[in-house]
Write a structure and sequence with these properties.
Elements lengths: L1 E6 L10 H12 L3 E4 L7 H11 L4 E8 L5 H15 L3 E6 L3 H4 L10 H15 L22 E7 L3 H10 L2 E5 L3 H18 L5 E10 L3 H12 L7 H18 L4 H7 L4 H4 L2 E3 L1 H14 L3 E6 L8 H6 L3
Parallel strand pairs: 1-2, 1-9, 2-3, 3-4, 4-5, 5-6, 6-7, 7-8, 7-9
Length: 317
C-alpha cells in the first residue's frame, strides 16, 4: 500500500504556511507524493507552485478542487502551469465539495453537483492528454503551448453518482475520514461501477488524520477537524454510520463548535484515522489495506508536532 501526504491549510488558528512545512518534511523524508488541498485560505495552484519550488522530489496532486467553482480549462491550465514551473508531474483531484464552500464561500450554485462532476471529469481527462499545438478547446482557435501536466486524474467520491464518475473517468478515487468498514463497502461499489463501465477499477485512496504518539493537543486538533464535517451532507452520513450520530444530530440543530467538540468522544479520532503509538497505527493501516485501500494519504496533526514531523518520520518507512 502506498503512503502519501496531504498538505492542506486548516481553517483554524494554525500558521498559514503550515502546508508548506508539511510538504517540506514529506519531501525530506522521501514520500513520493504530496496532495495540495484547496480551501478558503490558499489557491491550490499557487500553493502547489510554492511547494514545488521549495522541494526536490515529491510529485504533486492539486485538489480536490470544487468543480462548481473552477471550469475544466482553468483546472488543467493551472496544473500544466505548475508542472512547467516546478519540472515535476502534477495531477488533479476533482470534487463536488459542499454547499458550505461552493455557495457559502464562493457564492456559486452547487445545483446538479453530480452532473457537473461527471462533465468536468470527462473534460479534464481529455484536456490533460492534449499536446502542444493542439487546440485547447476544439473550435477556440487557441493552441496549447504547455506540455500536459503529466499527473493522474483523481475524483473525490462518497455517493453512488460520484463513485460512478470515478469509475468511468478517474485513475484514482479518494475518500475522506472513513473507517476500514466503510472502505470495504465503498471498494465494492467502486469495483462494481468500474465493471459496469468496462474499465479496470481506479486505485482507491483515503485522506486519514494521523498522529503517532499524539499529544493532547494533537488529539484535540483531529477531533476539531472532524467537527467541520458533522454538518456536511455525505460526510455527516458517514460519521453517523461510524457511531457518532449524537454529534451529527447536534450539528443539525445548529450547535456551536464547542458543543460539537464536546459531543465527539475521543474514540472518534481512532475510528476514522490513524492515532496512537506506532504499533497501533501500523495495525490500523493494515486494517485499511485489508479493506481494499490502495493508498493512505496522511493528514498529520501538527498541534504538538510542528509540520507533522514526529508522525511523518515514524511512518516514512
Amino acid at each position: 500500500m502506498d503512503v502519501t501526504v496531504v498538505a492542506a491549510a486548516r481553517e483554524d488558528d494554525s500558521p498559514t504556511d503550515e502546508p508548506l512545512r508539511i510538504a517540506m518534511v514529506a519531501d525530506r523524508l522521501g514520500y513520493g507524493e504530496v496532495w495540495v488541498g484547496e480551501g478558503p485560505t490558499w489557491d491550490a495552484f499557487v500553493l502547489a507552485t510554492t511547494i514545488g519550488l521549495a522541494t526536490d522530489h515529491v510529485a504533486l496532486t492539486v485538489g480536490p478542487v470544487p468543480v462548481s467553482v473552477r471550469d475544466p480549462v482553468t483546472i488543467v491550465r493551472g496544473a500544466a502551469a505548475v508542472a512547467a514551473v516546478v519540472g515535476r508531474p502534477v495531477g488533479v483531484a476533482l470534487g463536488a465539495s459542499s454547499v458550505r464552500v461552493v455557495e457559502g464561500v464562493h457564492g456559486r450554485s452547487r445545483a446538479r453537483a453530480a452532473t457537473v462532476l461527471a462533465s468536468s471529469a470527462e473534460a479534464v481527462r481529455d484536456l490533460m492528454r492534449r499536446e502542444p499545438g493542439e487546440e485547447i478547446t476544439p473550435g477556440s482557435g487557441f493552441r496549447r503551448r504547455l506540455p500536459p501536466p503529466g499527473g493522474a486524474l483523481t475524483v473525490a467520491a462518497f455517493g453512488d453518482c460520484a463513485i460512478a464518475v470515478a469509475a468511468e473517468h478517474a485513475d484514482r478515487m479518494v475518500l475522506d475520514v472513513v473507517s476500514p468498514g466503510q472502505v470495504g463497502e465503498l471498494r465494492a461499489k467502486l469495483d462494481a461501477a468500474a465493471k459496469r463501465a468496462g474499465r479496470t477499477p481506479p486505485r482507491l485512496a483515503a485522506w486519514l488524520p494521523a498522529a503517532v504518539d499524539p499529544t493532547p493537543e494533537s488529539r484535540t486538533q483531529i477531533l476539531r477537524s472532524l467537527v467541520g464535517y458533522l454538518s456536511v451532507r455525505g460526510y455527516s452520513d458517514m460519521l453517523a454510520a461510524a457511531g457518532f450520530g449524537e454529534a451529527v444530530e447536534l450539528a443539525r440543530t445548529g450547535a456551536d463548535s464547542g458543543t460539537l467538540l464536546a459531543a465527539l468522544p475521543p474514540e472518534a479520532a481512532t475510528t476514522v484515522g490513524l492515532v496512537g503509538d506506532i504499533d497501533a497505527v501500523r495495525s490500523r493501516m493494515d486494517a485499511y489495506a485489508a479493506a481494499g485501500l490502495d493508498e493512505i494519504a496522511l493528514v498529520p496533526a501538527t498541534s504538538g508536532d510542528p509540520g507533522g514531523e514526529r508522525t511523518l518520520t515514524a511512518l516514512a518507512t
